[in-house]
Design goal:
Length: about 70
Amino acid sequence: MKITLNPDAEIVRIVKEGLEKTGGYCPCRRERKEEYKCMCDEFKAQINDPEFEGYCHCMLYYKHKD
């Protein structure tokens, strides 16, 4: 299992700017809850799922199965 940043530098830039503005909370979510703090609980659960491969909610990170 490997986690990488999105290869699209523009998406990475936009999401990281959003994270700075929100104090580390997912900029794609309206509410500021602890479970939305990057790396969010949703993606942590997806990381632990051996069948999941794909992007986190805001598309900053990608989990590879191999």
